[in-house]
Specification:
Layout lengths: L1 H15 L5 E4 L8 H10 L2 E4 L9 H21 L6 H12 L12 H6 L14 E4 L16 E5 L7 E4 L6 E4 L2 E4 L4 H7 L23 H4 L12 H6 L10 H8 L9 H8 L8 H4 L7 H8 L7 H4 L3 H16 L14 E2 L1 E9 L5 E10 L20 H14 L22 E2 L1
Helix pairs in contact: 3-4
């Protein structure tokens, strides 16, 4: 830990011409030692410690550690990679986080804040996907393959390329020339081919007998000519017809085999001694579709949840200004001195994005509302009412207008809720 911090300290001074003035850590053994304390004194850096069992005093670092750990966990779970690759997932997570915009930097990325230029996203690939690096220099002869299937596990810190893991030899290749298949994940297939050790040789119940129970190596066997059973040939050559040519009595025989010899006994015994092979997407060729809608959702503009977030964008500031002007023009409130005996409610900005029929943004709407949940029933109010018509009411009105042959007009009233007359006194700050 001490040597890594020295490398980080020297990198900050050399690359960015900055000095670390204060370091805040917990009282771990990697920080409380003679070498670390002597280095802080020599460099003139203040070393602050948090109180025992009080990680909240170093909340910024703790929250970032949680962010990184959650990203690492997501990468490993999505790719089903083993936990032994957690260090590569950690470096990949940091590589991605440094290229994501953050509100603390005014929607800039950490990479742009450090290097004064926006990062590139063209080189980003999905962690754990299938890749084929160019391995011609590693070939021992001209007849060997110049590539082999590997697993993408990250980006090297000192080279412009990709890290490709050979799952057979656990050798990591660093190459710039790599072909990716981001729809296939090798560790998904590895786990799907692991046989179930707890499986028994008994025939499953009636409702658990699938048509895929017949494995491929039984299907390829030649039908025997010594048996007089006419249904043995469809079972060995056409597994899909097992349920079309077998009645309910035969299926019950599969679920509860009898002791009497029957023509289907040999077939049932063959099914008992076989292994059920799992059918994966890679075998059938049916790959999981890409999450296109999810990508659209991520690219859609986010609706702010607070005034601080909305004030950072020009269109939301304009929407709040229009709302405030409407409140003043309608005479919504009167300024009065506050009293300690009054139940003064707070207020909150609510934001919403309205869209046109083609999906384009129509307007940005902001509404200033009182925190009504702080009112007490029976003391501040006795009943609630919302002047919103239900769909059946609209249908009755339209039906009545059609019956009378009346024209129907539609209009939109801006700030319609401000035109209501409030009889009760409500104090808001």
């Amino acid at each position: 830990m001490f040597f890594k911090f020295q490398e980080f300290y020297n990198m900050i001074r050399c690359q960015f011409n900055k000095t670390i003035k204060t370091l805040r850590t917990d009282r771990g053994g990697e920080y409380i030692n003679n070498s670390f304390q002597q280095f802080c004194k020599t460099s003139g850096m203040r070393h602050q410690y948090t109180c025992p069992h009080t990680p909240s005093q170093n909340g910024l670092a703790e929250r970032k550690n949680r962010h990184i750990l959650e990203t690492v966990r997501s990468l490993l779970i999505h790719s089903k990679a083993p936990h032994s690759l957690w260090t590569h997932a950690l470096h990949t997570a940091i590589h991605i986080i440094n290229r994501l915009p953050t509100r603390k930097l005014k929607n800039k990325t950490p990479h742009e804040s450090l290097y004064s230029k926006p990062p590139s996203y063209q080189h980003l690939k999905i962690f754990g996907c299938l890749c084929y690096p160019w391995l011609r220099p590693y070939a021992k002869s001209k007849l060997e393959s110049f590539s082999k299937p590997c697993v993408f596990i990250g980006y090297p810190s000192t080279q412009k390329g990709y890290l490709c893991l050979d799952p057979d030899t656990n050798h990591i290749y660093t190459s710039r020339h790599v072909v990716f298949n981001e729809q296939i994940f090798p560790y998904h297939q590895t786990q799907s081919h692991v046989p179930n050790q707890n499986s028994t040789n008994t025939i499953p119940p009636l409702l658990l007998v699938p048509s895929s129970l017949i494995p491929p190596h039984v299907q390829q066997q030649q039908p025997t000519h010594t048996s007089t059973n006419t249904r043995s040939s469809p079972i060995t050559t056409q597994p899909d017809s097992i349920f079309t040519t077998t009645n309910l009595t035969d299926l019950q025989t599969l679920g509860h085999p009898s002791t009497e010899p029957s023509p289907t006994t040999s077939n049932t015994q063959a099914l008992r001694n076989t292994t059920h092979h799992m059918i994966t997407r890679s075998k059938t060729g049916h790959l999981k579709p890409k999450q296109i809608l999810n990508l659209t959702h991520q690219l859609a503009p986010r609706v702010p949840t607070s005034y601080t977030q909305a004030a950072q964008h020009k269109h939301w500031r304009s929407a709040m200004s229009q709302e405030f002007q409407a409140l003043q023009s309608q005479g919504t409130w009167e300024l009065v001195p506050s009293s300690p005996h009054q139940n003064v409610l707070g207020c909150k900005w609510m934001f919403r994005t309205k869209y046109n029929s083609d999906g384009s943004i129509a307007r940005y709407k902001a509404r200033l509302v009182a925190l009504g949940y702080k009112q007490e029933f029976g003391l501040d109010y006795t009943e609630t009412f919302s002047p919103v018509a239900k769909i059946p009411t609209f249908r009755i009105l339209i039906l009545f207008a059609l019956h009378k042959h009346w024209p129907i007009h539609q209009l939109d009233i801006s700030n319609a809720f401000l035109h209501g007359s409030l009889q009760e006194l409500v104090y808001m700050k």
